[in-house]
Design goal:
Layout: H1 4-34, E1 42-45, E2 48-51, H2 52-77, H3 83-103, H4 115-131, E3 134-136, H5 146-155, H6 164-185, H7 189-213, H8 216-232, E4 233-235
Antiparallel strand pairs: 1-2, 3-4
Length: about 240
């Protein structure tokens, strides 16, 4: 079985990266709220068309979920006794928030990319792969993640007009993937396992996007993600 320490350290890495996405999301919500016109009844934010009163609900939710993500990173790293129980509630709450957000996604948004989505999907994937005794190859195999690091780096930066949220999201995800690839190539199994989990998350996200939009780019991203999973996966 894959060592518990490897799984926990990999979750530490992924929660730090996704936690930064949460900081970005919370900032975007707050900035939107501060700049609302006095007579506004709806607002467009993070690819959603929201009633303004729902914005006031999602802001405190994200101000709770974001530090909670970093708390889970701390708990995973330090093997805290409360980590597993917290993980169950963490997954359920993140799923609920993601479900609500995607109920209000705009006509040109296939999926709302927010900390809620990343958190609950990685939790599910970590649980499934752990139960299946799946590990991840490190060393030279880790380089198979490089195409997705590039895609994430360009995901928002290449869009015109430039979306500040997606551009910053790309910087976080691209640099996070690059760091983990470097650590994985040097032989750190936890970094390789973190990339393995992130590729599983990517596979779920881009498969949904492809089925919703039939865009060729989403299909390519899905194939590259699932391909990286198959190349690096190993059963302990």
């Amino acid at each position: 079985m894959v060592e518990d320490e490897v799984v926990r350290n990999s979750l530490f890495y992924t929660y730090i990266i996704y936690g930064l996405v949460g900081v970005l999301s919370a900032y975007t919500y707050l900035w939107t709220w501060f700049n609302l016109p006095p007579d506004a009844t709806t607002v467009e934010v993070l690819g959603m068309l929201l009633p303004t009163n729902l914005l006031l609900v999602l802001i405190p939710c994200h101000l709770i979920l974001t530090p909670w993500t970093f708390t889970q990173a701390y708990g995973a790293r330090n093997e805290a006794e409360w980590f597993v129980v917290n993980e169950i509630w963490f997954t359920l709450i993140a799923f609920g928030l993601s479900f609500v957000e995607n109920m209000y996604r705009g006509p040109y948004t296939a999926l709302v990319l927010c900390i809620c989505l990343f958190d609950w999907v990685v939790d599910v994937m970590a649980g499934i792969t752990y139960k299946m005794n799946m590990g991840a190859r490190s060393g030279i195999y880790t380089l198979v993640n490089a195409p997705m690091a590039i895609i994430w780096s360009l995901y928002g930066l290449a869009r015109q007009p430039l979306d500040p949220f997606l551009a910053t999201l790309s910087i976080i995800m691209g640099s996070g993937n690059a760091f983990l690839i470097y650590r994985g190539v040097t032989g750190e199994e936890s970094a390789s396992y973190a990339l393995f989990l992130m590729r599983l998350v990517d596979s779920a996200i881009f498969l949904w996007m492809y089925l919703a939009t039939m865009e060729f780019q989403s299909l390519v991203s899905f194939l590259l993600s699932i391909g990286a999973v198959f190349v690096t996966a190993k059963f302990e």
